[in-house]
Amino acid sequence: MIMENSLLQSKRGYHIEPGTREKALLLEDPVLNQFKSHKRNVHGLKRMGDVLAVVVAAGCCYMIYVKSVMREEGQKEPRSINEGL
Predict the structure, then answer these.
(1) In sequence order, what are the residues at sequence separation of 6 or more whose Cβ sits closer than 8 angstroms to the Cβ of residue 6?
(2) pLDDT digits (tens, 9 = 90+) for 12-60
(3) Which of 1, 25, 29, 50 has the fewest Cβ atoms surrounding its Cβ within 10 A?
(4) What confidence tens digit (pLDDT) does each residue in 44-57 have?
(5) 26 neighbors 18 (Cβ within 8 angstroms)
């Protein structure tokens, strides 16, 4: 019975309205607006970072492909030279 009552009680406690100090801290301060980045600039910067990450990944995949093709060609050339003799 005691276990059931403790499980039914909220672990967060009761809701209490914030006081005047808490409300004042939650208000926006106009002095700090000059230090906040604008959403458009942040969105553009994130998009540029995503594009740069895709370009770098594509470049890495291309280099891996080129190296594997060059390795295959390098392994085939000595055999064809030896077969011609």
Answers:
(1) none
(2) 666 788 889 988 888 888 887 777 767 778 888 999 999 999 999 999 9
(3) 1
(4) 899 999 999 999 99
(5) yes
Residue type present at position 32? L
Does residue 9 contact residue 17 with C-beta atoms inside 8 Å? no
CA torsion, ordered 71, 76, 77, 83, to nearest 10 deg = 160
Angle at 59 between CA 56 and CA 60, to 5 degrees: 90
Question: Residue 81 corresponds to which amino acid?
Answer: I
Helix spans in the chain (H):
2-8, 20-26, 39-84
Q: What is the DSSP letter of 34?
A: G
